[in-house]
Amino acid sequence: MLRDKSLQRHCLAEAGVDMVTSVVVGDRDGAAAALRNIGAPAFIKPIDGVGSAGCARLDTLGDFSRLFAEVDLCGLGQARFVVEELLEGLCPYPSFADYVSVETISAGGDRAHVGLTGRIRGPRGFREGGYVFPAALDSTRRGALLNLVDCELAALGVQDGVTHAEVKLTSPEPHILEVNGRMDGYIGDLLLRAAGFDMVKAALVASALGSLPRPIREAGVPDVAFQWFLSSPEGVWRLDGLQGCEAAL
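-> structure tokens emitted (249 positions)
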């Protein structure tokens, strides 16, 4: 369930934790049925994709056909997608995106939400613009996010390990985008630079001894750490060559 986004949605809905309408599709007929059931605009993503690859807004069947062709060109080998209702979020600040992530370490069913990581507003096409730690959220919104992730991890049966849950800042209450059973690739570096917190070490200690770390107190974090992404043009492109490498070296 931590790898299959369709099973994850089904489990959370069955548990009454997060009700987001979603349908699995693998062809044009399935996409047509999903659009009829969910309505446009919808959001489509590969069942086990990563890095926002193959994610798009779905308004018409033409959008699905184009996305399916692009995914095939990229060699992702993805035959099934999840189509779900498009969640409209609220950006707390103009430069930030409308979702955050909650970084959690679990041991024996107990949990420590280490911190919340914000996102820099990205370019078009649901691509990420970057990360910022700590996230700029007030205590009320922060509490609602942590409570949702607590219920989510319990519903998914997570007992031990590291999770990275992405949460959309929707109103009146937040919604889960997805949860991954791993530490995100940039989180360890961000927490180390901003707060001096070694998440890899903390996860290993929790695994070996069952001892959970104390959550990072954002008010006491001495620095703010950013990870800025340089995004490629939207769509599928082929690299024909590079120029200027010698000068750069």
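The mean pLDDT is 86.
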